[in-house]
Amino acid sequence: LICNQPRSMAHSATWLAFLGITGAATSVHTQGAGTSTKATPELRVTVGYAQKPLALETLRPRFSWAITPLSGAVDERQLRYSIALLGAPSAWIASNRSALVPFPTDVASLEAGRLYSAVIRVETTHRNLTSLDVQFATAPTFSRGKFIGWGAGNNSACPWIRKEVTVQAPSSTGSDVYVAYVASYGYHELWINGKKVGNDVLAPSVSDLAKRVLVRSYDVTDMLPPAKRS
User: Fold this and answer.
1) Which of 28, 78, 86, 114 has the fewest CB atoms within 10 Å, i.e. is most exposed?
2) How far is CA 64 from CA 7, 42, 48, 109, 131, in A?
3) What is the pTM assigned to this prediction?
4) How far apart are CA 160 and CA 120, in angstroms?
C-alpha cells in the first residue's frame, strides 16, 4: 500500500527485496540451547543508536551502553569493557568510554548481509556486567530488489501493489532471520498474507526523491508459515 506519492511519480513504484540473512558462525543461534540469551537489565546496549538493527551500512558498527545505577552505591565508575562476537575470545580494554564505541577490528571481520550476536562486558568499581545477546545485522548488497508498480496510466492515491516471492530454504542450524527491505516513492505499508508488518505509520522518512529513496527494513521471520520456508 503506497500513499501520498509525488505528482511527478504518479506511476507509484515500490522496490522490494526479500532476503534471508544467515547468522554468522558466532551467532547466538548456533551456540547451543543451553546458552542464556537474555540481556542484563543493568546494562542496556544499542548498536548504531538502535536495538537489533537489521541493515547497518557499516562493517564496523558502534556500540553504546548505559548502566543502571546500583542501589546504595556511591561513585560507581566504569573501569574497562570488552566487545566480542558470541563464542569468540575477547580482550579487556581499560577505558570509561561507553558511547559510540567502534567494533574492534582485531576481534573479527564482519561481512555484508549477515546476522551477528555480540557480547558486551563491563567492569565497574562495584560489579561486573554482561549483555549476552546483542544482535545486529549488516546490510546486504541490494542487487536483487526490483521496482514494481502500476504504470504511468494509474492515478490512484493509495494503490495496492502485490507481489509473490519465493523464500529460500533456511539453513540447517536454524540461524536465518528473514528481512524484507522496501523502498517506495511515497509512504508505504507492508502486508504479508493479509497481516500488516509492524506498527509504523508514514514510513519511510521524508527524503528528496529526486536524489534519494530510503530503504526500510522489516523483520518478518515470525510472519512466514514454516511450510513456505522449506
Assistant:
1) 78
2) 42, 14, 8, 20, 12
3) 0.73
4) 43
Alpha helices in 27-137 (DSSP H): none
One digit per residue, the tens of pLDDT, for the chain of length 230 reads: 555 544 444 445 666 655 555 544 333 322 222 333 344 568 999 999 999 998 898 999 999 999 988 887 788 999 999 999 988 888 999 999 999 999 987 777 899 888 899 999 999 999 999 998 899 999 887 766 677 777 666 667 777 888 777 777 666 656 677 888 888 888 888 998 889 998 888 888 888 878 888 888 888 888 876 655 43
Residue 199: which region, alpha, beta or left (left: phi > 0; alpha: psi -120 to 50)? alpha
Q: Strand runs (DSSP E) across the chain, as ranges?
A: 2-3, 13-23, 43-47, 62-67, 78-85, 93-94, 101-102, 114-124, 128-137, 146-149, 176-184, 187-188, 191-192, 195-196, 216-219
